[in-house]
Structures are given as structure tokens and as C-alpha cells.
Design brief:
Largest sheet: 8 strands, mixed
Helix content: 25-40%
Structural class: alpha+beta
Radius of gyration: 22 Å
Oligomer: single chain
Shape: globular
Strand content: 25-35%
Amino acid sequence: MSEQKPPRVKGFKFASRSAGLKKSGRSDLALIFSEVPARCAGVFTTNKVVAAPVVVSAPRVRAGQCQAVLVNSGNANACTGQQGLSDALRCGELAAAALGLPEDLVVVASTGVIGQNLPMAKFEQHIGLLPGQLEAGGASGVAEAMRTTDAFAKISWREGEVAGQPYRILGLAKGAGMIHPNMATMLAYVVTDALVSPGLLDETLRWCVNRSFNAITVDGDTSTNDMVLILSNGQAEAEEILPGTPEAQDFQQKLLEVLTELAKMIVRDGEGATKVVQISVRGAQDAVQAQTVARSVATSNLVKTAFFGEDANWGRIIAAVGYSGAEVDPDRISIYFDDVEVVRNGLGTGPEQEALATDVLKKPEFTVQIDLTLGDGEGVYYTSDLTYDYVRINADYRT
């Protein structure tokens, strides 16, 4: 959906501009604004080194209301001490003043290089100009401004209805490197004009994040700035979506589709990546065991380099299954590349099948299916290949 123009979501406006934070001169400062205070929920980094904007914003999100999100790229404002905290607070103060809002309704977020102070003179100059640029059709500009090493902007949306009244869900994300489960290195913002009950909004977001952004890996690194935020402003004028209703199930499914689409875009855009691979595990003792196996395979550098080399090296996959920590019986494992079976009951199926599997690996997107035949547990992860370009991009990231 990112190739189409995103729809307008009632009551939300967007602005973006270049504040000179990136050497490229591209846009790097953006604002998401709801015309009324919105219900909000968020999920943040699990890294114990937490960036200043997360320290400032997480308590505000937990309070349950948000009306504006100020986000910059080019500088993460992480590991910047008390000065970084003061700068994050000042950015929120500037945005609140420009919009005429209480500061506690403004979320601030940053992404970029760690360990450098924000060039506050540029923020002082440019934040106040953003409200004058707000427009309902400006979401694509925000997605562009969030980019760091991203090759493309990431946008997804879905439409639903409550009692015949339509609503929309629109998601924006950035991320390409330092991508790992338990929040990838990414920022993601979702806005909806549906009115979702507060507890359901939080519960649904966490459920969907666990099955999307927490199920992707590029390089095994988790960042200091990760944030997923959803705002629900009710401007679609549909009835409130309440827990335990068909409308709640439908909203959850549509939000999952948006977040999964964004998550797969992040994997596709993994620094240097040429392939997107779904690791699908079935037949585990339970879902937790299945996810454990899927994660082990998805994060194996040996497996990922084999994907890059288009080598149907199932030995690396079965080894990663074996050291995952999950309960497995090596004599009952089957492995497929798409629908090509390369392992049956722990044994290879021969060179002809491997040749067919090699053809599968030449595709830009494919699935590795692993059947443990021990139970009903299922799990999925999305991963990329590991390429020469990943090293090149990250060897000189700061320059």
C-alpha cells in the first residue's frame, strides 16, 4: 500500500520539513497532530540504555492521552545525559507552545546517531514553523522525515466500520538496521479515527506488536529509542469499540495487518538486504516453543548468510532448531523451502530436492517451513539475508 497515496484520517494532520539535522538536506523534523485529545497507548524499547525522548514520552503515553507527536531523524538524543533530557523536554515545550497545548499532551521522539547532543538552535528555529504546515494529506511527508538509512518510506492502512460507520487506521514506520525482536530499532506511529476503549487500545496494540514488530529480525541489535504509538481520536463518529465485541476482533485484525505490513517492509529494507524470509514453525508442543524455534532460525547469522548465497543449506537450519532451547525430536523434523521438502523425519530428501529448493532461494521473498510434529504449537518470524552491504553501510554509519 505504500506506493499509493495514503487516505486521510479524520481529525489528524501532518507536517514535515528540513531543519538541517541530516547532512543530506532531506526532511528530518515532523509533526503528527490530532485536532482533539486522542486516547493513546504505546510500547517502548526493552533496552536498559534508554534515550531521553523515551524517558520523557513514556509516562505521558501511560497517562492515556496524546494530541501531538514531534519526531526528528538524524540524531537519537541517546546517551546524552542530563543535557539530553533537558533538550527533549525543551522540544516538547516548543511544540506545545506552538500548538497551544499542555506539554503533557506532546510526545517527542528521535532517531539517528547515538551520543551526540541535539543541535537545539535548529529546533528552536524550526519547531514553531511546523503548525503552519499541518495538512490532512501530509502523512507521506512524515514517513519520509522519519527515515535514517531507510531506502523507502513505510506506510500502511486499512478501513473498517462500526454499525455501518466507516473508520480508518493509518500506520507510519521507520527502520532498516538494529532490528531485532522485543522491539526492533524503529519508530512507528498509528492513527485511527475510530473510538477505541482505553484498555482495549492498549491490550490490542501489545497483542499486535508481539505478532509483528516483535517477530522480525535483521541483525540482532535492539536500539535505545524504539517506540510504537497508537492514537485514537474518535472523529469518525462511530460508536465506541468495546472489549469482547465482533468490532473489537475486527479492529484487532486490521491493526495486526497494518503492523505486520510495516514490519515486513522493515525487513525488506534491512540494511543491505536482498530477501525477505518468513520462518514458519508448526507442530511444536505449544506456541511459545514454536516461537522459540522460529526466532532461533531467524536470528542465525549462518542461516542468514546462506539465504544471501542462495544455498539451500538445511543443515544450518536444523542446527538452529536444535540449539533453540525448545523441545524437539531430531527424528521427527521436516523442513520445506516454500513447498519443496528438503528434510523428512530428520533426513535429507536428496540432491534433486535441494536443486529445487535452490530455485526457491533465488526469489526475493519465500518461506522456510519447519514441522516438529510434536503438537499444535505454531509460530512465525520474519528475517532478511545478511549481505556484504550490511557491513559496508554500518562500517561508516556516522560519516
